[in-house]
Design a protein that fits this description.
By secondary structure, the chain is α+β, with helices and mostly antiparallel strands. It has 3 helices and 2 strands; from the N terminus they run αααββ. The chain has one domain. The chain has a two-stranded antiparallel sheet. Its EC number is 3.1.11.2.
């Protein structure tokens, strides 16, 4: 991930790495093969933050509730909470 951050000129992106890296946590699902229903997906969405902002990051996650919408996206939003 540091290579991507360097290309964007934002330095390191530790907040992106704070989303728990477990085998069953994905942010993208192939809707054609019912990837969400079968819990098959990819981790392709990132949170980019400067070092000072990343140090204020207290919580991150992936919002699966949006998948209950009538026509959901194939991406589940990733989110972060920051405190001063």
């Amino acid at each position: 991930m540091d290579g991507q951050a360097d290309e964007l000129g934002v330095g390191s992106i530790p907040s992106a790495m704070r989303i728990p890296q477990t085998a069953d946590r994905f942010s993208w699902f192939d809707y054609r093969s019912k990837g969400f229903d079968d819990n098959r997906g990819l981790r392709i969405d990132l949170l980019l933050a400067s070092q000072p902002l990343a140090e204020c990051c207290v919580e991150t996650g992936i919002d699966y509730e949006i998948r209950s919408m009538e026509k959901p996206s194939d991406h589940a939003p990733v989110w972060a909470t920051f405190r001063r």
